[in-house]
Amino acid sequence: MSYLTKPILAISVLALVIPISGAVQQTVIPGAGELQISLTKLSVLGSVLYVGAHPDDENTAVLAYLSKGRKYRTAYLSITRGEGGQNLIGPEQGVEIGIIRTQELLAARRVDGAEQFFTRAVDFGYSKTADETFAFWGKENTLGDIVWVIRKFQPDVIMSRFSPQRAGGHGHHLAAALLLREAFDAAGDPGRFPEQLKDVPTWRPRRLLWNIWRPVPDELKKLVSIDAGEYNPLLGKSYSEIAGESRSQHKSQGFGSAGRRGSQPEYFEVAAGDPATQDIFEGIDTSWNRVPGGQKVGALLEKSVRSFDPGQPSKLIPGLVGVYAELAKLPDVEWVRVKRNELLHIIQACAGLWMEAIAGDYAASPGDTIQVRTSVVNRSDYPLRLQSLGFPGIVPDSQLDRLLKNNEPQTADTAIRLPQNLPISQPYWLEGSGRKDALAPEEGTLLGQAENPPALSARVRLLAGGQTLEYSLPVLFRSTDPAKGELYRSFEVRPRVTIQSEYNVIIFPGNDSKKIKLRLKSHSPDVSGVVRLKGPAAWTITPDAIPFSLSEKYGEKEVTFEVSPPNRPAAAELAAEAEVEGKPFSRSLVEIDYPHIHRQVYFPESRLKAVRLDVQTNGKKIGYIMGAGDEVPRALENLGYEVVELSDGMIEDADLSRFDAVITGVRAYNTRAVLRKSKDRLLRYVENGGTLVVQYNVASSEINDQIGPYPLTIGRDRVSDENAPVAFLSPGHLLLNSPNKITAEDFEGWVQERGLYFASNWDERYEPVLSCHDPGEPEKNGGLLYVRYGRGAFIYTGYSWFRQLPAGVPGAFRLFANLISAGKFPGNPTDGKN
């Protein structure tokens, strides 16, 4: 990369101590207990890879025990990022829930001490067979990714939560187990995936273990066990207590867990490789003897551990620097590289050495200049020197040669011009076609990694006892919140301008035109140009272009285009694009911010789906009771309904009769306790002529009696094939005829699934309307139940409207409009009359 401006560098010494805290930082300096564990871990050269299909499949107690107890290098490989799952904490789905679950796994790993890897396989939702899973994932591609991680990580032991015989009924779990068994052998075979060998060597793990859940007594004699409930006095917790904290990071899945206290045996079956009868690492040398010439390093480290004083850890620095010098004499093998990195952070901890690189703003665009202040504070008497500072690939190293006196911060201010070719802060796996294709050559080294490297990094070199210690610091932004205190977030590289649409899907119920609002946001100062909205010729869009000018960074401007649909049902993709100084910008901005994970951004193409459909609606005003979070209310507003989201107080006290229908969101009865107390009130609303539509809830005995006017049991039945044929049990039923005539065509183009958590048992007064099933399974009739109650109608539906409506599926809108209208038609619901 070329250097576009000469960097400005100034050195100053501050008299005050810089306060440090926050969730996002390069390295959290550990306390004495964690530091002692890390010191001991330097002498343990053993590694374990745990493998599962999804975020949440890992056994966090086992990970904590292996990492913090046995001190092995431990990692979890999740085949997918969980893109197909549900979301308990917000409306995000698909790509966005995959981003959230990636970060939840990283948050969990920060608790249990393991590392995190992924393949490029995409979670497409619940699957019942391995064959379907292989077809979606691409069996050979996913197998190659698993082999890559094994060769890169080089585990001695591989273990899996699922085996081919114990896959929990999920096709993803079975597929993961089958792939892992094959990958165990393929990783050591130079004839398998030979293209990888230019970057990684072949690797033969010593054994493959299935983590057996609740074995029967007859199985115990052939299993190897560990006790993940052991107590660690250095941490003040057992590994099963740590596991509860780790698993509770999976908040989008509602996996808050209590820590367990007491013995917690975990059992393993040897599936392949060397046999074992007493221990999972039986016969595996985990000492420095496995590295040629490593015995001296092992002896020096043993001496350091014996002399560790938790009150004065800096006394270890001379000896540890000597170990660092010895490492330089050893072959450049993986274990030497791993332990060198661990040692750098331990030296940092022993010195209480705080280092950070803080940008003057949280984002900038290629070509912009940002200010970065790099601070280094040595909180020990060990004589460290700040040798140099640079920003690799952007600003060359500057020689500083500054003594780091005890508790006297050194700072360096650098003005950095971001190169024009610096990539935006886009998760690497989202570029290309869903990451099912091969990574581009420049991205190849990221394969398997959980996330991108920092957008910008500072390189700090320190001199210690004649040895140069090199640290890489991510550039961050720091702010102070009046309630939360000091906060950190990653520095982001953004496009100069982004374009947001008011809706991702625009519904045209007839031939009338609609105004589509776009909001432009600048991420650089002085951005001006024109913006266009483009679509197929059958869709008329005016005007052709709209000029805009944004003088301030983060300034916003709203523009409006008028779109006229064709005079027949059709769907089209409309693309927004801004032109600035002859360059096109076509990205939108999505920000994901939850307290338990690091803030995330990504930049999808600024596109929206336009759907012209023939749909009739009855009623205009809807009361919506949000559950776990979904985008159904916005989709209904798009169709022309007035939607009011009901608070707990409104559910208990408001006049519900003003609503033509009341709809409960996904998992509403699972997440809103007020609903269980308000059954009688909601049923009076139905009795007086209202329509109550209840979308799916997770099966629970606590809520079955709290939902409908008559007994109703929610089961676990689901139809995962989105193309499964749908039969009409009562073709003349009003739900299939009023106000829209529903046909088989309305079930075309559905996404991910037909539905989930269908009713399994119901009172005979309920009428099942639809039936469908996955291949080879019996019909499932509990996905749409209707009953008249008084003058109104009650409906329970497990069909996945929360996916279909935001995706703009035409038939889903037509049928859902019928559900909303159900209470408007008194009399026999099967007479097909309006």
Q: What do these coordinates show?
A:
With 834 residues, this protein is an alpha+beta fold. It has four domains: 171 residues, Immunoglobulin-like; 241 residues, Rossmann fold, CATH 3.40.50.10320; 116 residues, Immunoglobulin-like, CATH 2.60.40; 204 residues, Class I glutamine amidotransferase (GATase) domain (Rossmann fold, 3-Layer(aba) Sandwich). It is 21% helix and 29% strand. The chain has 18 helices and 45 strands. The protein is globular.
What's the topology here?
Blueprint: E1 8-13, H1 32-41, E2 47-52, H2 60-69, E3 73-78, H3 95-112, E4 115-118, H4 130-137, H5 139-153, E5 157-160, H6 171-186, E6 207-212, H7 217-220, E7 224-227, E8 231-232, E9 237-238, H8 239-247, E10 265-273, H9 295-306, H10 317-327, H11 334-350, E11 354-359, E12 363-364, E13 369-377, E14 384-391, E15 395-404, E16 410-417, E17 457-464, E18 467-481, E19 485-490, E20 492-493, E21 497-501, E22 505-508, E23 514-522, E24 527-534, E25 540-542, E26 546-550, E27 556-564, E28 570-580, E29 583-585, E30 590-592, E31 600-602, E32 607-612, E33 621-625, H12 632-638, E34 642-645, H13 648-653, E35 661-664, H14 668-671, H15 673-677, H16 679-687, E36 691-694, E37 712-714, E38 718-719, E39 726-728, E40 755-756, E41 759-762, E42 767-768, E43 770-772, E44 784-789, E45 792-797, H17 801-804, H18 810-821
Parallel strand pairs: 2-3, 2-5, 3-4, 5-6, 11-18, 12-20, 22-32, 33-34, 33-35, 35-36, 36-45
Antiparallel strand pairs: 1-16, 6-10, 7-10, 8-9, 11-13, 13-16, 14-15, 14-17, 17-18, 18-19, 21-23, 23-27, 24-26, 24-28, 25-27, 28-29, 28-32, 30-31, 37-41, 38-40, 39-43, 42-44, 44-45
Helix pairs in contact: 2-8, 3-8, 4-6, 5-6, 9-10, 10-11
